[in-house]
Every structure is written in structure tokens, then in C-alpha cells.
């Protein structure tokens, strides 16, 4: 997608300097900073500190991490050590482990002398695949938006509500939940997107920055406003992403997603989740009971970063000095609250049968 008319991916390989370059998302939406990464340790730090974030992007970044590790030491011991080191960086998003497993399977049979080049080639493939998968997710979600738009009175926009940032900056390009929005806008469908702030890290500001850069009409609202908007007929569809989806169709997404699903159900509003198949964890059935929920630094809840009137980016404390904080980063929406899953192959029910019919070769052998 574009920033001020220039096309960017969220990460790319600098062939001249032989390093990975990323957009450091900690400074968005106020400042665009590019970081070069040449060492595995620095890449792991970028994932932990959410310089890169979003399940698909974390997976692609991890693949480049394996390539950096193999360039330094292509031994069997380092292959396993790099896998273990990166796997610990973020516990909830399944794309991380999916990419690491794919890299290790591909590299293990190779001679050590061939691993560095093969690992980098594979990382490029994973990044390019992510772009195409998200484009196709957008095509499939676009069909839903077309249906809603066709029923709207002339001149009235289709109104979507989204939570967190499942945009191009959370993937390599296009995004998951935003891909249908971009494609609908480009087709000329009138849209308006309600963008949840998504406390505590306010990733909704990233979505607003993305949509604004692409010219999509939107409004940034507080997390607690969504139910009110639905009650008053101002939301036609809720569309979010997911960091992990169970084989029965439960979805784990940024904290607060479950509350949006409950409000959507109470107001008879469709609640769709956009995801690549790499986000499906076929080893997990009950998301509430089985998915590990990342507990992040409480400072994210007690402090907030923003831009002052003077233009400086600063952090300020919100809470009393002695007040403890809690910071569960995700919650799980049970499949009964999900209208459908928008994947690269099409839209399916959020059920074991729906997922296995859509991806039979992946579901094969799952109990």
C-alpha cells in the first residue's frame, strides 16, 4: 500500500546491504522510521517490542530471522537454537510457529553450505505469499461488502466497524480485515469505517493512519462506543482479524474483540473474521481453554504515548503512582459468535466442518 504516494511493504530485504528493513511501528502514526536489522538478536527484539506486529507479519519476520541465523551459523545446533529463540518472542500468534516450522522442515535436509541461501529464498517466498493471500482474502470479503452496499439506500455508505489493526502494516501488504475495505473503496463503493482505538496500545490509530493514507472515509472511536453505534443502526458489519484460530472456529484477537462480538450478536449484526490459513491452529480445539494469552508489560496500560502540541512524541502516566496494572493482550471469541471466516479460499462457517471442508489437506489427520 502507499504512504504519501509511495508504495511500501511493512518489511523488505535490502540486497545492497544484505539486511532486513522494517517499518518501526512504535512511532506510527506520527513518524515513519525505518530500521535495518542484520542480527538475529535484534530481530527478536523487534518482535518482542512490537516494532513489527500482527500475526502474518510476525511470521514473515521470523522467516527472515531464520535466514539471518543461517547466514551466521548454518549448523544443526544453531538451526534448532534459532527456532527456539524466536518461538519464545510472542506466545499467542500462531503464524510465528507456523513460519518457524516451515523453515526448519525445509532447511534440515540440506547441506549446511546450502542453508543460508535457501533460508533467504524461503523468507522471500513467505513474504510474497502473504501479499497474495491477503489480496485474495480481500477479494472474498469484497463480495460481502458488495451485497450490503446493494441493499443500502442510494448515497448511504456501507458502515464497517473494525478492532485493532489487521491492516497492511500488520501483514506484508494489503492486510486481512482491511484488504476488503481497500478493494471496495477502489471499486467505488461508498464506505465508512468505525475504527476502535484498541487500548492499551491504540493500534486503531494505525488503522486510521492506513485508511486515511488510502483515502477511505473513517472515524476513530473509543473502544466502548461500538455497542452504542450498533444499537443505533450505524454498523452494517463488524470485520476484524485474528492471531490464532482453532480448528473449531474460535478466534483469538486483540483484547476487546469478544465484547464487540457480543454486542454484534445482541444487535443482529454480522461479525466476520478475516484470516490466512496459516493462522489456523489445527492442534487446538477450545480456544478459551487452550490458547495461551500473552500478558504484556503493565506500563502499556498505565502510560500512553502520543504527540504533544509542540510536535514531540512523549509518554505520559495515566494512573496513580501506586496503582497496579494488568495487561492481557488478547481474548478469545467463541465460534458461536462468529458469522463467518473470510480466508484466501473463500468464506466458510466458523465450525470444524466449515474449516475442514475449506482446507481438507490441512485438516487431514486432526482428531
TrEMBL record:
<dbReference type="InterPro" id="IPR037171">
    <property type="entry name" value="NagB/RpiA_transferase-like"/>
</dbReference>
<comment type="pathway">
    <text>Amino-acid biosynthesis; L-methionine biosynthesis via salvage pathway; L-methionine from S-methyl-5-thio-alpha-D-ribose 1-phosphate: step 1/6.</text>
</comment>
<feature type="active site" description="Proton donor">
    <location>
        <position position="243"/>
    </location>
</feature>
<feature type="binding site">
    <location>
        <begin position="53"/>
        <end position="55"/>
    </location>
    <ligand>
        <name>substrate</name>
    </ligand>
</feature>
<keyword id="KW-0413">Isomerase</keyword>
<comment type="similarity">
    <text>Belongs to the EIF-2B alpha/beta/delta subunits family. MtnA subfamily.</text>
</comment>
<feature type="binding site">
    <location>
        <begin position="253"/>
        <end position="254"/>
    </location>
    <ligand>
        <name>substrate</name>
    </ligand>
</feature>
<feature type="binding site">
    <location>
        <position position="90"/>
    </location>
    <ligand>
        <name>substrate</name>
    </ligand>
</feature>
<feature type="site" description="Transition state stabilizer">
    <location>
        <position position="164"/>
    </location>
</feature>
<protein>
    <recommendedName>
        <fullName>Methylthioribose-1-phosphate isomerase</fullName>
        <ecNumber>5.3.1.23</ecNumber>
    </recommendedName>
</protein>
<dbReference type="InterPro" id="IPR011559">
    <property type="entry name" value="Initiation_fac_2B_a/b/d"/>
</dbReference>
<dbReference type="InterPro" id="IPR000649">
    <property type="entry name" value="IF-2B-related"/>
</dbReference>
<dbReference type="Pfam" id="PF01008">
    <property type="entry name" value="IF-2B"/>
</dbReference>
<feature type="binding site">
    <location>
        <position position="203"/>
    </location>
    <ligand>
        <name>substrate</name>
    </ligand>
</feature>
<dbReference type="InterPro" id="IPR027363">
    <property type="entry name" value="M1Pi_N"/>
</dbReference>
<keyword id="KW-0028">Amino-acid biosynthesis</keyword>
<keyword id="KW-0486">Methionine biosynthesis</keyword>
<comment type="function">
    <text>Catalyzes the interconversion of methylthioribose-1-phosphate (MTR-1-P) into methylthioribulose-1-phosphate (MTRu-1-P).</text>
</comment>
<dbReference type="InterPro" id="IPR042529">
    <property type="entry name" value="IF_2B-like_C"/>
</dbReference>
<dbReference type="GO" id="GO:0046523">
    <property type="term" value="F:S-methyl-5-thioribose-1-phosphate isomerase activity"/>
</dbReference>
<dbReference type="InterPro" id="IPR005251">
    <property type="entry name" value="IF-M1Pi"/>
</dbReference>
Amino acid at each position: 500500500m502507499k504512504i504519501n504516494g509511495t508504495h511500501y511493504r511493512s518489511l523488505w530485504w535490502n540486497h545492497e546491504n544484505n539486511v532486513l528493513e522494517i517499518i518501526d511501528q512504535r512511532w506510527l502514526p506520527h513518524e515513519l522510521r525505518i530500521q535495518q536489522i542484520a542480527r538475529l538478536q535484534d530481530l527478536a527484539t523487534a518482535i518482542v517490542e512490537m516494532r513489527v506486529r500482527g500475526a502474518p507479519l510476525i511470521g514473515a519476520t521470523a522467516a527472515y530471522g531464520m535466514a539471518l541465523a543461517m547466514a551466521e551459523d548454518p549448523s544443526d545446533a544453531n538451526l534448532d537454537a534459532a527456532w527456539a529463540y524466536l518461538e519464545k518472542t510472542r506466545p499467542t500468534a500462531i503464524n510465528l510457529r507456523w513460519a518457524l516450522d516451515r523453515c526448519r522442515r525445509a532447511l534440515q535436509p540440506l547441506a549446511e553450505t546450502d542453508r543460508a541461501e535457501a533460508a533467504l529464498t524461503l523468507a522471500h517466498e513467505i513474504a510474497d505469499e502473504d501479499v497474495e493471500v491477503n489480496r485474495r482474502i480481500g477479494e472474498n470479503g469484497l463480495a460481502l461488502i458488495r451485497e450490503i452496499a446493494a441493499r443500502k439506500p442510494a448515497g448511504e455508505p456501507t458502515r464497517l466497524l473494525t478492532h485493532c489493526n489487521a491492516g497492511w502494516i500488520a501483514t506484508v501488504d494489503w492486510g486481512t480485515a482491511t484488504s476488503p475495505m481497500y478493494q471496495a473503496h477502489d471499486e467505488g463503493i461508498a464506505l465508512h469505517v468505525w475504527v476502535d482505538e484498541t487500548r492499551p496500545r491504540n493500534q486503531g490509530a494505525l488503522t486510521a493512519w492506513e485508511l486515511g493514507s488510502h483515502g477511505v472515509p473513517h472515524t476513530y472511536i473509543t473502544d466502548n462506543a461500538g455497542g452504542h453505534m450498533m444499537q443505533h443502526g450505524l454498523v452494517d458489519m463488524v470485520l476484524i482479524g485474528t492471531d490464532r484460530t482453532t480448528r473449531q472456529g474460535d478466534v483469538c484477537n486483540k483484547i476487546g474483540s469478544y465484547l464487540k462480538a457480543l454486542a454484534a450478536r445482541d444487535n443482529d449484526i454480522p461479525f466476520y473474521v478475516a484470516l490466512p490459513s496459516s493462522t489456523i491452529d489445527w492442534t487446538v480445539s477450545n480456544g478459551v481453554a487452550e490458547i495461551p494469552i500473552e500478558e504484556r508489560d503493565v506500563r502499556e496500560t498505565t502510560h500512553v504515548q502520543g504527540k504533544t502540541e509542540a510536535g514531540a512524541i512523549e509518554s505520559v502516566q495515566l494512573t496513580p503512582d501506586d496503582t497496579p496494572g494488568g495487561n492481557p493482550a488478547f481474548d478469545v471469541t467463541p465460534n458461536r459468535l462468529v458469522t463467518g471466516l473470510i480466508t484466501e479460499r473463500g468464506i466458510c462457517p466458523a465450525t470444524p466442518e466449515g474449516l475442514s471442508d475449506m482446507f481438507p489437506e490441512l485438516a487431514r489427520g486432526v482428531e
